[in-house]
Amino acid sequence: MAKIRLTMAQALVKALAAQKTVIDGQTLPLFAGVWAIFGHGNVAGLGEALHGARDGLPTYRAHNEQAMAHAAIAFAKASRRRRMMAVTSSIGPGATNMVTAAAVAHVNRLPLLLLPGDVFAGRRPDPVLQQIEDFGDGTVSANDCFKPVSRYFDRLTRPEQLIPAFERAMAVLTDPAECGPVTLALCQDVQAEAFDYPEAFFAERIWTPRRQRPDEAELAEAAVLLKAAEKPFVVVGGGVLYGEAEAELARFCEAHGLPAAETQAGKSALPFDHPLNLGAIGVTGTGAANAMAEEADVVLAIGTRLQDFTTGSWSLFSNPACRIIGLNVQAFDAGKQRARPLVCDARAGLAELDAALAGHRAPETWTAQAKSARTDWLTTAAHYTAAGNAALPSDAQVLGAVQRWSEPSDVVVCAAGGLPGELHKLWQAGAPGGYHMEYGYSCMGYEIAGGLGVKMADPAREVVVMLGDGSYLMMNSEIATSVMLGLKLTIVVLDNRGFGCINRLQGATGGAPFNNLLADSRHETLPAIDFAAHAASLGAVSRKVASLAELDEALRESRAHDRTSVVVIDTDPMISTDAGGHWWDVAVPEISTRAEVAQARQRYDDALKARP
């Protein structure tokens, strides 16, 4: 067997570069590159290896370890899990900065290869700079934090361990059901150790998505349930997009007269103007979708985790006769809440379910009811997004301005605060992938870094990042990275001077205004933050606007800019869209000195009693 002598780091980089995929007939590197912030735990070993491979496997420098991992996650999501990126940091804080991002990838079922530096396997210099020491376990390092948020974790303490570890890592990263973050903790001395690796380990390998077909018995049961349903309903999750099944979904709904609603991850899978697309579902859902979901007697949940925002904390599907069919590649998700599992790929499953339902349509009265509800909701939504003359516009009005400016190919990116709810209800996605929301973990700070990853995945599309002042302050450094890489974003900052979304939730649960808006937080002087000046200091074209009319003008200008643009507008922290939506289980204290809390608790108890 032919062998080649390399350091473990050189072998890892060479193996990464050998992984390929085929998309639309074009063979592409599976790993589009490596994000790296170097330190003493990775600069000498992995840094040297990446430099040697920089023409075939590009290395990108970021400004924050969590942010660069967010960018990698967004790239994978925008690539529909067909391509991915690796991320490397030094030992210590560089590594633990990435733990939050690992959780984002884990919750959202997205491929992310994390390569944090680790302690010396030989332990000669222990404890090294930034090393965490466990008083009772000498094998522990800071990287053990990755274990609960990794689909696969391994610590390489010998160079030859790379071979089985890498094979297992690739199996997880490319598996539709197991997909998620993989952590290979690289002991820094082992990165530099040489080993005679078999040349076969570096042979080019092409990865194509596995499309699991449904079990015959599960398919037959699903078909029986749908044929017998008087009020069938479809919930569209992110698995439809990951499975590249949006065309099959549209045909399936049309052929069988099935109304559908979208989760945050599934939004844009069904064309906005599809007559059976009722829009968002759940806590942040449209009035149309939620009304139909409450009546549904069979729910076909495709590619969704059925988290509490989708199900209204499991109070939304209130028809006592309701049964759920869980069409999902992951059995864990397919069987939730006693659902009838249909474990399969979304595209393959819809095709075979369509054949099993050949000639069958839902009752016409149900289909007509859905179309009417959709029309009514569109009228309602237009009222909230229309421009107004108030001194401080609502988030929905700002969203409306961005919507009117946007083109069908544009991508809107968001993650946390009140904006996800407004966007879920009101945004009209123009094309598949045009709505990029990280709402599995709803991670503040994802937005700008995520927008950067989306732009890397599809540079031809205009990427619009919408975020609040809270998220901007939490993580904004990748504005500089976008400028440095020539990857233009349009960033709209809605400044409500605090955490407006949680302030509203605090009030809804009876709490006094406290520690959310800046004015209600402990302070000697309120900060006068000039977001436009800050963005300009990072290299962006920036502008603060004083009205929706000025916002329209600034957005028009931004499309012609050659680098990232940041537009800032002040908004009202107290206004949100009160149409649509559904109950969400947020526990209220049983005992409080505040009468408002007692009243909120009574409402909460009443809601619990009303749950199906």
UniProtKB/TrEMBL annotation:
<dbReference type="Pfam" id="PF02776">
    <property type="entry name" value="TPP_enzyme_N"/>
</dbReference>
<dbReference type="InterPro" id="IPR045229">
    <property type="entry name" value="TPP_enz"/>
</dbReference>
<protein>
    <submittedName>
        <fullName>3D-(3,5/4)-trihydroxycyclohexane-1,2-dione acylhydrolase (Decyclizing)</fullName>
    </submittedName>
</protein>
<dbReference type="Pfam" id="PF02775">
    <property type="entry name" value="TPP_enzyme_C"/>
</dbReference>
<dbReference type="GO" id="GO:0030976">
    <property type="term" value="F:thiamine pyrophosphate binding"/>
</dbReference>
<dbReference type="GO" id="GO:0000287">
    <property type="term" value="F:magnesium ion binding"/>
</dbReference>
<dbReference type="InterPro" id="IPR011766">
    <property type="entry name" value="TPP_enzyme_TPP-bd"/>
</dbReference>
<feature type="domain" description="Thiamine pyrophosphate enzyme N-terminal TPP-binding">
    <location>
        <begin position="44"/>
        <end position="131"/>
    </location>
</feature>
<feature type="domain" description="Thiamine pyrophosphate enzyme central">
    <location>
        <begin position="219"/>
        <end position="353"/>
    </location>
</feature>
<keyword id="KW-0786">Thiamine pyrophosphate</keyword>
<dbReference type="InterPro" id="IPR029035">
    <property type="entry name" value="DHS-like_NAD/FAD-binding_dom"/>
</dbReference>
<dbReference type="InterPro" id="IPR012000">
    <property type="entry name" value="Thiamin_PyroP_enz_cen_dom"/>
</dbReference>
<dbReference type="Pfam" id="PF00205">
    <property type="entry name" value="TPP_enzyme_M"/>
</dbReference>
<dbReference type="GO" id="GO:0009099">
    <property type="term" value="P:L-valine biosynthetic process"/>
</dbReference>
<dbReference type="GO" id="GO:0003984">
    <property type="term" value="F:acetolactate synthase activity"/>
</dbReference>
<dbReference type="InterPro" id="IPR012001">
    <property type="entry name" value="Thiamin_PyroP_enz_TPP-bd_dom"/>
</dbReference>
<dbReference type="InterPro" id="IPR030817">
    <property type="entry name" value="Myo_inos_IolD"/>
</dbReference>
<feature type="domain" description="Thiamine pyrophosphate enzyme TPP-binding">
    <location>
        <begin position="417"/>
        <end position="569"/>
    </location>
</feature>
<dbReference type="InterPro" id="IPR000399">
    <property type="entry name" value="TPP-bd_CS"/>
</dbReference>
<dbReference type="GO" id="GO:0019310">
    <property type="term" value="P:inositol catabolic process"/>
</dbReference>
<dbReference type="InterPro" id="IPR029061">
    <property type="entry name" value="THDP-binding"/>
</dbReference>
<dbReference type="GO" id="GO:0016823">
    <property type="term" value="F:hydrolase activity, acting on acid carbon-carbon bonds, in ketonic substances"/>
</dbReference>
<dbReference type="GO" id="GO:0005948">
    <property type="term" value="C:acetolactate synthase complex"/>
</dbReference>
<comment type="similarity">
    <text>Belongs to the TPP enzyme family.</text>
</comment>
<dbReference type="GO" id="GO:0050660">
    <property type="term" value="F:flavin adenine dinucleotide binding"/>
</dbReference>
<dbReference type="GO" id="GO:0009097">
    <property type="term" value="P:isoleucine biosynthetic process"/>
</dbReference>
<keyword id="KW-0378">Hydrolase</keyword>
